[in-house]
Amino acid sequence: MELLRSLLFAPGNQPERLRKFPRIDADAFVIDLEDGTPEADKSAARAQLAAIVDELRAQPLGGYLLVRVNDPQSAHVEADLEAALGADIDGIVVPKLETSDQVRYFGAALARARRDRPLAIVGGIESMRGVMAAPTLAGADPHLRALYFGAEDYITDIGGQRTPAGLEVLYARSQVVLAARAAGLAAIDQAVVEIRDETRFRDDAGQGRQLGYGGKICLLPRQVELANALFSPAPAQVAFCRRLLEAAGAAARQGSGVVEFEGRMIDAPLLKRARAVAALADRIGAD
Amino acid sequence: MELLRSLLFAPGNQPERLRKFPRIDADAFVIDLEDGTPEADKSAARAQLAAIVDELRAQPLGGYLLVRVNDPQSAHVEADLEAALGADIDGIVVPKLETSDQVRYFGAALARARRDRPLAIVGGIESMRGVMAAPTLAGADPHLRALYFGAEDYITDIGGQRTPAGLEVLYARSQVVLAARAAGLAAIDQAVVEIRDETRFRDDAGQGRQLGYGGKICLLPRQVELANALFSPAPAQVAFCRRLLEAAGAAARQGSGVVEFEGRMIDAPLLKRARAVAALADRIGAD
Amino acid sequence: MELLRSLLFAPGNQPERLRKFPRIDADAFVIDLEDGTPEADKSAARAQLAAIVDELRAQPLGGYLLVRVNDPQSAHVEADLEAALGADIDGIVVPKLETSDQVRYFGAALARARRDRPLAIVGGIESMRGVMAAPTLAGADPHLRALYFGAEDYITDIGGQRTPAGLEVLYARSQVVLAARAAGLAAIDQAVVEIRDETRFRDDAGQGRQLGYGGKICLLPRQVELANALFSPAPAQVAFCRRLLEAAGAAARQGSGVVEFEGRMIDAPLLKRARAVAALADRIGAD
Fold first, then answer.
1. Residues of chain B positioned with their CB less than 8 A from the CB of C211
2. N or C terminus: which one in chain A shows less Cβ crowding within 10 Å?
3. What does the pLDDT profile of chain C (287 residues) look like in tens digits?
4. Same domain, B209 and B249
């Protein structure tokens, strides 16, 4: 799960919306049994899960296919997990993670599922306890491959208020990306619930990217397009990085310690950043 | 201590200011034996404490009555505590908390006091060690019911400088509210020492509220009025929340999973926020 | 190492730049064997280290003389350390500190060196693991006397992007200064790599100072001048603090608890700040 620029959620009880997944270019698709599916529909959504997944798998799908179960403390979680593991998915999304034990519980369930390919957990950090525990739970089980930060739930939990500038969640958002990345996980930034406001989405994604997030929760296809673009390196940047790496490689072959390239000092951080950009561009086929 | 929008401090050696408490609408009143009372007057302030408290208790008082003792490491703290527990107060304010042991020390003292109603500790986090220890000390003793963040003392301790925007304390201020709220305590935001600058107070209280603080330290009656207004839900918001909860309740009785209300998706965070707003409005008698 | 307003780095393989140290007024000078010295030149730089240090010591040098070794996980670090301890330096700079064990490793090496004066470690916190471990490693060994925050390396490590406003590193930068200061260490703020942009340097240093940093990494002599000025107290501030302390002292001798001075309440934080400013001014000879 190295490339998670866009994580698109759709309600598990709305098959017509799930059927649109193959026409969307998200890096991961989430069938949402939690907040997206009203209480009264949860059971039916579970019952039809395997069938809709088979339907989706019959077509080419451009990203991972995941199921979001209800939160670890809810009464639904065991039934959700059973339904999810009975379908041909790539992994689960677990909202409101708060402890390492929860991570290990879901990890053990995935391990018992014995698939031909490893199943992944994408964990949601969206409560006070989750934010506080993020640095420890991030490394609790190898199935955990990504964390997302849920700003709306977090601010409700702490009793605050969201603002466009987002300073009220800067501490939590920074702690989550640090916890995720330090444990080698992908980090997925908060949703933008103002779904018609593209400027807001762009600004928010820009902040997320600066902080170190590699992608964003998306609530509709247009946000997926924006996220894919905003979390991909710009063509000029990719080109610069490739020229730089080539020059550094040539210099190394001649046994010289490269110093300068196109007017900039080449140091270790610059080379490391260039390698990361080029690797990402290779994976997404960008020039 | 669920409602602490305004925590008004007045010097323990100025009875004429303390006598004004009954005319002020603060959620809590603090007779300050620490910074508010000069060294030379501390002993006299302690000696007259029980009498002034009796005088205040003879009148209706709109909020909790507390005594701020000197910091746990000072030479005054035992005498302060004895004087405070000899008066008819609701609890103590302990400045510059830095360890769980300190919290337990004061908790044990309050437990020994054996009052008919439980006594509370409001703890001050206003030093580097306090900020670092806040996540652990917040849960150290059940008498601890609230934490306040003291930005001025904190910035002095770390050797920084205060600014109106407050980015220099955002990390500490965020960590304290998170520590407090995660432990189920009330969280009280920093003082505004520019006592004539209402705009500054409003802006600063707005930030505090966004972060999750439920009230503010107040240095004079006008700040109490502002804090009470700023930390109460707006009438339109209360009305919206009540309509929303009514609609959700009706839908639940009909067995339908509510989806939309006045053009907004109803999800779990929204319902939880609405319930909190309505509960707060009920307590303060707001419409 | 109480006064570290400016920490000037120069490449260990460029003797002509090192020879300029005596003409510069930095509080500390760093001969950089890490990023500043290309791989191919590291061995030669080590070989000539003692000689260049002797040359520098033959002249009056206005600050500490330090050597930055390569990071603890590199293949160079033992040879660097041997070379550094074979020269007449005041201590070492260790980049990319991530664990308490690393701090103790370098502390033990300095202890074995048995100099007539104690040698110091200035540690660099410039990775995700370093930021997370900063609160514990800061107190791991008494030789550690200062920490600097390396924003460029940190943001590369986490995969983010630097901006002029710096919100993307506010959490990390705040955590490092808190860890350092709480352990009684000097705290040195991030470099500004836009070396021709004085406004950027001034703004960035201002933020650092507000956060509690006492100085800045400097990449060229002009930045040293700016840092020395920006991290010294202003003359009017020094004068105010000296008047205040004198008044407070006189009042104390008369046995009165001072209350007001030049229209301001005198409280404990104000007095503490005044003492710190006056002490700093004394050390740097400011009026």
1. 158, 160, 168
2. C
3. 778 999 999 999 999 999 999 999 999 999 999 988 988 899 999 999 999 999 999 999 999 999 999 999 999 999 999 999 999 999 999 999 999 999 999 999 999 997 888 899 999 999 999 999 999 999 999 999 999 999 999 999 999 999 999 999 999 999 999 999 999 999 999 999 888 899 999 999 999 999 999 999 999 999 999 999 999 988 888 898 899 888 888 877 776 655 667 766 667 777 887 888 888 888 777 65
4. no
Looking at the structure, do residues B205 and B249 belong to the same domain, yes or no? no
User: What token pair was written down for C136?
Assistant: 């514990």
Q: Are residues C43 and C155 in the same domain?
A: yes
Q: Identify which of B114, B182, B176 has the alpha carbon closest to the alpha carbon of residue B143.
A: B114
Same domain, A142 and A258: no
> Can you tell me the ipTM of this complex?
0.90
β-bridge partners, C239: none
Classify residue A224: in a domain, yes or no: yes
Judged by a CB distance cut-off of 8 A, whether residue B219 touches chain C is: no
> In A, which residues are within 8 Å of C162 by CB distance?
210
Residue C216 contacts by C-beta under 8 Å, 6 or more apart in sequence? C5, C6, C7, C188, C189, C190, C191, C192, C204, C205, C208, C223, C227, C230, C231
Q: Does B156 touch chain A (CB under 8 A)?
A: no
B1 in a structural domain:
no
> Does C142 contact A at CB distance below 8 Å?
no
Cβ contact C160–A135 (<8 Å)? no
Last residue of a domain, one of B211, B230, B249: B230
Residue C221 maps to a domain: yes
Q: Which of B128, B131, B156 sits opposite C273 (nearest CB)?
A: B156
Residue-number span of the structural domain to which C258 is assigned = 235-284
Find chain A residues with C-beta within 8 A of C44's C-beta: none
- Are residue A275 and residue A208 in the same domain, yes or no? no
Q: What is the CATH number of the domain that holds A41?
A: 3.20.20.60
Q: Can you give the three-state secondary structure of B195-260, one letter per residue?
A: CCCHHHHHHHHHHHHHHCCCEEEECCHHHHHHHHHHCCCCHHHHHHHHHHHHHHHHHHHCCCCCCE
**What is the residue whose two structure tokens read 């507390």?**
B66
Contacts of B172 in chain C (CB under 8 A): 174, 178
Residue A99 inside a domain? The answer is yes
Each residue's pLDDT tens digit, A136-169? 999 999 999 999 999 999 999 999 999 999 999 9
Pairwise CB contact (< 8 Å): B158 & C256: no
- A156, A167, A171: residue with CB nearest B272: A156
Domain boundary residue, one of C185, C209, C230: C230
